[in-house]
Amino acid sequence: MIRVKVCGITSVHDALLSAEVGADALGFIFAPVSRRLVLAGVAREAGLAVGPAVGRVGVFLNQGLDEVLRLAEAARVSAVQLHGPLSSLYVREVARYHPVLRVLCPGDLGRGDVLETLEDPAVTPMVDAPEPGGGVPLDWEALRDVFPPGAWLAGGLGPANVAEAIRVLRPAGVDAVSRLEERPGVKNPGEVRAFIRAAREAGRQSYPQ
């Protein structure tokens, strides 16, 4: 079974919508530079509304360790997603407290320090575009031979292309933001529903039981 994450949630309404149509996890962005920035209190309320069966992922970009841990605790997230050129020591320290989705760009794949970090069982790789949330898909065929086993995939995914991405790379999970929105931070219900449906169907075809 492939897992599906809807990222950039900024309201309880969109959290409930995404959970009701089958999202396995929700992403709450705490990076101050993001147009989808959410307050920790809103994220916590949304997490309580959807219940513990849905993952709540706090998303951070080049933020200090104390800030990440403080916001993750305040929002009561179940995992932390880390973007940016971070040291292995930093990633491991966060992983002491929370499961980590470590976001990598295609250029990071194969680097020794990155591979060393991924040996930590609390760290799962996610491959994303250099500009997160930009809506530009990666070249999946070019990644076929270097895509880490068990990794998640992000980067310009939406209802129209997620099936092909799953067919080529067979990721453990898929994550989408911009192609599911009416405007930054506001989800389009039809696109969210179509994305999850397409991912599930592709998963059934690519991961036979």
Automatic annotation (TrEMBL):
<dbReference type="InterPro" id="IPR011060">
    <property type="entry name" value="RibuloseP-bd_barrel"/>
</dbReference>
<keyword id="KW-0057">Aromatic amino acid biosynthesis</keyword>
<dbReference type="InterPro" id="IPR013785">
    <property type="entry name" value="Aldolase_TIM"/>
</dbReference>
<keyword id="KW-0028">Amino-acid biosynthesis</keyword>
<keyword id="KW-0413">Isomerase</keyword>
<dbReference type="GO" id="GO:0000162">
    <property type="term" value="P:L-tryptophan biosynthetic process"/>
</dbReference>
<protein>
    <recommendedName>
        <fullName>N-(5'-phosphoribosyl)anthranilate isomerase</fullName>
        <ecNumber>5.3.1.24</ecNumber>
    </recommendedName>
</protein>
<dbReference type="Pfam" id="PF00697">
    <property type="entry name" value="PRAI"/>
</dbReference>
<dbReference type="InterPro" id="IPR044643">
    <property type="entry name" value="TrpF_fam"/>
</dbReference>
<feature type="domain" description="N-(5'phosphoribosyl) anthranilate isomerase (PRAI)">
    <location>
        <begin position="4"/>
        <end position="197"/>
    </location>
</feature>
<comment type="pathway">
    <text>Amino-acid biosynthesis; L-tryptophan biosynthesis; L-tryptophan from chorismate: step 3/5.</text>
</comment>
<dbReference type="GO" id="GO:0004640">
    <property type="term" value="F:phosphoribosylanthranilate isomerase activity"/>
</dbReference>
<keyword id="KW-0822">Tryptophan biosynthesis</keyword>
<dbReference type="InterPro" id="IPR001240">
    <property type="entry name" value="PRAI_dom"/>
</dbReference>
<comment type="similarity">
    <text>Belongs to the TrpF family.</text>
</comment>
